Write a sequence for this structure.
């Protein structure tokens, strides 16, 4: 089983890291990959460069063996579509291995606008994690896909949607960038190693 958390990670923070770790623990995933996007399809483009965002991500997970950085989206040109990413992982691992694509309630709200979203469910399961300020509608297009038995994950490679309550951390990269621009100290919202990199490179001072 392979877990995936895609994101802009501009910069990575404890909301991302707890989510990745708790999803990995909950589903027993030995290989949880964090995949930074190069050109996000549906949002303003990132402030930090792809290389800077990857370096911050690598620094953040350096001491946690269950989390891996996967730079495949940074090596592709054009929009960083999740369909393309999951297709490329499928090509490497074959059709039988379960893939769990993790996303927050906020991102899930727009899932039906994603490139080839219906085919994404043929490539991976979705784990939709709780995020303060957002909720999952009780009924909707996703209802027939909702999985209740996590054991199914081990026998089916894709197609279910699971909702998981991770530790609620009201942290966003937008808020971190705002604090940094205002000269405020964002310590304890993100790893010290990441904050050190931001300060050394004077990132987000002028966004
Ligand atoms: N605090 C959080 N709790 C749970 N999930 C989160 C949290 N922050 C981000 N995520 C999820 O992580 C993924 C990547 O998020 P992203 O890199 O866009 O971070 P962000 O903090 O939302 O950034 P920004 O504020 O720049 O939009 C998304 O699926 C998002 O829903
Ligand atoms: O493939 C798409 O069309 C698509 C549209 C919006 C978001 N995504 C993915 O969703 C993940 C979280 O996105 P974001 O913008 O919250 O960082 C990240 O892996 C994005 O590539 C993917």
């Amino acid at each position: 089983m392979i877990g995936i958390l895609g994101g802009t990670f501009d910069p990575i923070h404890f909301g991302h890291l707890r989510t990745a770790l708790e999803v990995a623990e909950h589903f027993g995933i030995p290989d949880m990959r964090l995949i930074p996007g190069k050109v996000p399809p549906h949002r303003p483009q990132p402030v930090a460069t792809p290389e800077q965002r990857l370096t911050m991500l690598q620094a953040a997970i350096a001491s946690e063996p269950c989390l891996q950085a996967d730079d495949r989206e940074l090596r592709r040109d054009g929009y960083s579509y999740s369909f393309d990413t999951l297709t490329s992982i499928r090509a490497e691992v074959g059709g039988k291995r379960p893939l769990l694509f993790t996303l927050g309630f906020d991102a899930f709200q727009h899932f039906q606008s994603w490139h080839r979203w219906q085919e994404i469910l043929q490539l991976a399961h979705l784990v939709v994690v709780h995020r303060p300020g957002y909720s999952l509608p009780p009924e909707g297009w996703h209802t027939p896909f909702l999985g209740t038995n996590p054991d199914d994950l081990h026998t089916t490679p894709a197609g279910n949607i699971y909702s998981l309550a991770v530790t609620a951390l009201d942290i966003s990269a937008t808020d971190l960038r705002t604090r940094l621009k205002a000269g405020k100290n964002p310590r304890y919202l993100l790893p010290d190693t990441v904050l050190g990199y931001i300060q050394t490179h004077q990132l987000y001072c002028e966004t």
Residues 149 and 162 are 9 Å apart (CA to CA).
